[in-house]
Design brief:
It is a single chain. By secondary structure, the protein is of the alpha+beta class. It contains 21 helices and 24 strands. The protein has 4 domains: 195 residues, no CATH class; 83 residues, no CATH class; 159 residues, no CATH class; 147 residues, no CATH class. The strands form 7 sheets. Strands 1-2-3-4-5-6 form a 6-stranded antiparallel sheet. Strands 15-16-17-24-18 form a 5-stranded mixed sheet. It has a 5-stranded antiparallel sheet with strand order 19-20-21-22-23. The radius of gyration is 30 Å and the shape is flat. The chain starts with a helix and ends with a strand.
Length: 666
């Protein structure tokens, strides 16, 4: 009698043979039209994955080629809704409910994802189980219909039926499935449909077919008997769209993934694949010529290893260097590791003199244990051993810091010393209108002289700031804000009263009539005012070289205007008026619209009650647009708009009159 182990091994081999057979099977249009089209047009598969996650097959019932040029696909959803994808020169254009989304623009891609999600909520439910893991939720709260993300209405609508075949009974070609085997066939005409229906076939693809059951049985047996049988999990790689995006690296730094790949190829560094194997690119010049100068690619690039094996870039794993997990959690956890890692490298630099990448080795890293006051030594050590990009940055920053501040220092990140300082500061921030301690000081690490570890802090914010300035000038306490640096780091000092602050020049406003926002223009940059969280979260965001990405909340906007004798309406008041359909709000909004420079009075009604938007989108627009127009109007008509704009920028840069001195390393 065969042993259980023998049977399990036999079943495992059967499963592997079946999977291999399926993988090698040539798909024909008759067998599975949708799979055939996806295989013929791999970029379409990548695009659907980007728009609907890798589980898009659970929600898509069929894909039809509607036109040869430009190649146009109709994507039919399980609930009877549909949308179109048209191939353009560099990317796809999605046409959803009469609007076009140019997917080359990552902002437009987010809007398209949300529009498809809205489609899936219409009609009958799709009946899909959903993904095994939670997928990231993209919340789009800015309801623009033109401008930045280039969402345009083509005017034609999607009311006409564009199906491939349409007989006198309005029959539409579709897929039908055997409920037992999961086999699918394409019903081109009604006759096909009736024949398959008579055999018991239906429209819904079975969630689990016979062969899947066999795999499940083997897996359950393994779990119960603790057999060494393993199942491979397919991991997502860097599709052309993913490779064209920015990687969010330690401390929130965003770096184009294409640049990261170029650097790794130039340095002959190993690249990891989704299956865990690693290789070094040998056709360097050919690949680099296809990557350099590009900020986006639309097709995978072929890489060749030492054995002349061809590997597509879509098979590259999204490791930590490309902004992936890389074995570590992201977000604040990764930030803590990165900032702690800088403290370790700083300690090595101050102990040994000027250092190179070779000095950041395991021996030197471990020699700093107990000397640095950080929150995650082991995590920081792991980061330094696995992320060459961060080591590059940390070394150049440490050399620059040591060249300007002689030390000695105890390196602090989240230590008791830092907690004591923050405890002294936080209660005093509200008195001066600062709600975020990072707007007082964005320092990620603190370099503290040994004789200042037990410093006592005064009782007022002004005195604390004065003491920190004194200790900075003595070279005793240095707060450092970290940004990823190149081979040559630089330092910039903020809030030093002896250094004249660079001021910007106000240029005017851009009211953006169709968008739920309005802009203040200055130098070569702008401040964008809008709601950042649906019906709430009104803020200003700096766009451009001046404090790019810095935000100013409503409280500081209000304070900056109050300091210049201007009162603002409360966002809560406007929100309540809009939600409750206050009869006076529309006339008030109309007066504000008519008084705004750059807006056409005739455009008000169309934007206030936009028939192309849902009722909820119109609510969002009214709230965000009113608040944004009120702010830009008051600044534009104030006696000193330069002063207000500079106050806002200084706050975004943590450079208010109530902020502490700090050094930004970048």
């Amino acid at each position: 009698m065969a042993s259980k182990e023998f049977i399990l091994n036999l079943l495992e081999q059967e499963v592997e043979d079946f999977i291999q057979t399926q993988a090698e099977k040539v798909i024909t249009f008759e067998d599975d039209p949708m799979a055939y089209i996806l295989k013929k047009y791999p970029s379409l598969n990548d695009t659907l994955t980007d728009l609907m996650t890798k589980h898009f097959g659970d929600y898509v019932m069929g894909i039809y080629v509607m036109a040869p040029k430009p190649t146009t696909f109709k994507v039919l959803l399980h609930n009877g809704q549909f949308f179109y994808l048209m191939y353009a020169k560099d990317s796809y254009i999605a046409k959803i409910q009469g609007k076009k989304y140019y997917l080359l623009d990552l902002g437009a891609e987010e809007y398209a994802t949300k529009a498809i999600a809205d489609l899936l909520t219409m009609g009958k439910p799709p009946g899909a189980e959903g993904p095994d893991d939670q997928e990231d939720n993209i919340t789009v709260t800015d309801t623009e219909t033109e401008t930045d993300v280039d969402i345009t209405d083509d005017g034609g609508g999607d009311e006409e039926d564009l199906s491939e075949a349409k007989n006198e009974e309005e029959f539409k070609p579709h897929m039908m499935y055997d409920p037992k085997t999961g086999e699918g066939k394409y019903a081109k005409v009604k006759d096909d449909h009736l024949k398959l229906k008579a055999k018991g076939w239906g429209h819904d693809k079975p969630k689990r077919v016979a062969n899947e059951k066999k795999i499940r049985i083997v897996k359950e047996s393994v779990e119960k008997k603790k057999s060494p049988l393993k199942f491979k999990i397919v991991k997502e790689g860097l599709s052309p769209t993913e490779l064209s995006k920015d990687a969010t690296l330690p401390n929130g730094v965003k770096t184009p993934r294409i640049e990261i790949l170029i650097k790794k190829i130039q340095n002959d560094e190993e690249l990891e694949l989704t299956d865990g194997s690693k290789f070094i690119v040998t056709n360097k010049e050919e690949v680099l010529s296809q990557l350099k100068g590009k900020d986006r690619i639309t097709k995978s690039i072929i890489l060749i290893d030492k054995d002349d094996k061809q590997i597509a870039t879509s098979k590259l794993k999204k490791t930590a260097e490309f902004g992936g997990g890389g074995g570590m959690r992201g977000g604040s956890d990764l930030t803590a590791k990165a900032e702690s890692a800088q403290c370790i490298v700083n300690e090595i630099r101050y102990s040994k003199g000027k250092i190179t990448l070779d000095d950041v080795n395991e021996k030197n890293i471990q020699s700093t244990r107990g000397k640095v006051q950080i929150t995650d030594f082991d995590g920081a050590a792991e980061l330094l051993n696995t992320n060459t990009g961060w080591v590059d940055s940390s070394v150049s920053i440490s050399n620059e810091l040591a060249s300007n501040y002689s030390g000695p220092f105890i390196q602090n990140r989240g230590s008791d010393w830092v907690k004591t300082l923050e405890a002294a500061v936080k209660p005093k921030l509200k008195e001066v209108g600062i709600n975020d301690i990072n707007k007082w000081s964005p320092s990620d690490i603190w370099m503290v002289a040994p004789d200042e570890i037990n410093i006592n802090w005064p009782n007022s914010l002004n005195e604390i700031n004065s003491l920190l300035l004194k200790k900075y000038n003595e070279g005793k306490i240095i707060g450092v804000s970290l940004k990823k640096a190149g081979k040559e780091a630089s330092l910039k000092i903020f809030n030093d009263p002896t250094i004249e602050t660079t001021r910007v020049k106000y240029k005017g406003i851009d009211p953006k009539p169709n968008a739920a926002k309005a802009l203040i223009l200055f130098d070569d940059s702008s401040i964008e005012f809008r709601n950042f969280n649906g019906l709430s979260g009104f803020q200003g965001e700096i766009i451009g070289k001046k404090a790019a990405g810095g935000k100013v909340g409503y409280s500081i906007i209000k304070k900056a205007l109050n300091d210049n004798g201007i009162e603002l309406t409360s966002p809560n008041e406007i929100r309540d008026q809009v939600i409750n359909n206050d009869p006076d709000f529309k006339s008030k909004f109309k007066r504000l619209w008519d008084s705004t420079e750059g807006l056409d009075n005739a455009d008000f009604e169309r934007n206030f009650n936009n028939p192309e938007k849902t009722p909820n989108q119109n609510l969002l627009y009214r709230i965000s647009k009113y608040l944004a127009l009120e702010v830009v109007n008051t600044i534009n008509k104030s006696e000193d708009p330069d002063e207000i704009v500079n106050d806002l920028i200084n706050y975004a840069s943590s450079s208010t009159d109530d902020s502490a001195i700090f050094v930004k390393a970048l």
